[in-house]
Amino acid sequence: xxxxxxxxxxxxxxxxxxxxxxxxxxxxxxxxxxxxxxxxxxxxxxxxxxxxxxxxxxxxxxxxxxxxxxxxxxxxxxxxxxxxxxxxxxxxxxxxxxxxxxxxxxxxxxxxxxxxxxxxxxxxxxxxxxxxxxxxxxxxxxxxxxxxxxxxxxxxxxxxxxxxxxxxxxxxxxxxxxxxxxxxxxxxxxxxxxxxxxxxxxxxxxxxxxxxxxxxxxxxxxxxxxxxxxxxxxxxxxxxxxxxxxxxxxxxxxxxxxxxxxxxxxxxxxxxxxxxxxxxxxxxxxxxxxxxxxxxxxxxxxxxxxxxx
Amino acid sequence: xxxxxxxxxxxxxxxxxxxxxxxxxxxxxxxxxxxxxxxxxxxxxxxxxxxxxxxxxxxxxxxxxxxxxxxxxxxxxxxxxxxxxxxxxxxxxxxxxxxxxxxxxxxxxxxxxxxxxxxxxxxxxxxxxxxxxxxxxxxxxxxxxxxxxxxxxxxxxxxxxxxxxxxxxxxxxxxxxxxxxxxxxxxxxxxxxxxxxxxxxxxxxxxxxxxxxxxxxxxxxxxxxxxxxxxxxxxxxxxxxxxxxxxxxxxxxxxxxxxxxxxxxx
Lengths: 309, 266
What we know:
CATH topology of the largest domain in chain A: Glutamine Phosphoribosylpyrophosphate, subunit 1, domain 1
Largest sheet of chain A: 6 strands, antiparallel
Helix content of chain B: 10-25%
Oligomer: heterodimer
CATH architecture of the largest domain in chain A: 4-Layer Sandwich
Number of strands of chain A: 17
Structural class of chain B: alpha/beta
Radius of gyration of chain B: 21 Å
Largest interface: A-B, 21 and 30 residues
Radius of gyration of chain A: 18 Å
Strand order of the largest sheet of chain B: 4-5-6-7-8-9-10-11-12-13-15-14
Number of domains of chain A: 2
Strand order of the largest sheet of chain A: 8-3-10-1-16-15
Distance between the termini of chain B: 51 Å
Distance between the termini of chain A: 31 Å
Strand content of chain A: 25-35%
């Protein structure tokens, strides 16, 4: 089933970490397997890389900690080798890390080089995008990664009921649009032609970390945008190219978009005010943000809506 | 499948997916004045709201209930099988007032997906928008949505009337079998797809007709029906409508099964 949520502040910033947690937590019944966030903080010169070296539910063999430590050190070595000067590397868990680096080179080369380290997956990369995802409900993930108080401009999130692939971090949303910095996607639905798209995109050099159909949406959009399309144009084209049922949200550094398939098979409720735009699979998630009576509506089939800051 | 765990003296039940809801008892929070009652649902769970409603209507002889702050919670007011009046001051989530038989309901906000699913009789008025699957498998009664509705309104509708003040989405009246829909705004693609019977009236534009949905012949009874419904619900003077019905080329609905034919002949 899965639940998705998004919020974008028209100007200024807010505690999008807490906002997204309360939205996702109110939709826990739509997916208790894993929860994920794509949060946009204030952009800086530094590149933020969120990566993981293992999963919460990986078996803990006797070498587990030492191996992760070795791999983390290898990541730092490789960052230096490729010309990225490390600002800091932090970790809230024993397997997921947040690194800030100064780097002007090709981000694809950087991501590929890091992911060559065994077990490494770059969850997100960009000047303001940070993807945090893990097993458990939103409250658990938020407290594990200390997301309360995350000051930002916009965010999307996802609660997952796994149907197509494993319950692990790789199968959790949001998906970073590798190798396009600061782009991410959450998806509610199933794509029926994702095998074809996966093959096509792999031919043009993209990598996939999961067996999840949703991952191709992010990469699909990224490729369109790399070829010069803006977010709206890329999303419009996706309605023709993607088969199946979907409501998905995509975010870039300054915008948030949502698309619904031709059958309007998956839900979306939308609320717009002068200060913010909030949307979710269920109105109850929007109510978690706004305490007064509000007017909301459901977008129709085949609609693509994009808000920019 | 239900597990029970003791947590600090308070019993908590978990359903098969591990979601918790406290063992609910009727909260008795209403202010009752004769046959009318008011209560605030802001701090109540779904089960508590429904238990309070049922207690008022079935046990305490209340015939007019006002529920404040329903907060878009799901499955509120379902299965009420008695004539009464219920006002929700706010919005309902998914599956609002489903499976009802008799109540006259007013919702001052909006509703999520599948409002009035399998409703048997009564009247439900919704002041704002409604989600998809409004009046799914409706059997009888009237649903009046002042705003717009999502997709597949009246899917599998088997009776009753759905009136929409705004627009309707794709596959409206999908597999409709009986009853009526009166839509004042525009309608999305696939109107009346695979419908068996029933009548659809549209005042706005129709993006496309579904399979076996065709324009119908207007009758005096249609004029009478629309004027009556507009008068009852204070919708002003009716605009001009197009009528759509089933083309009846896809099925042989009246043909009896071979075994049934034998029964008729003998």
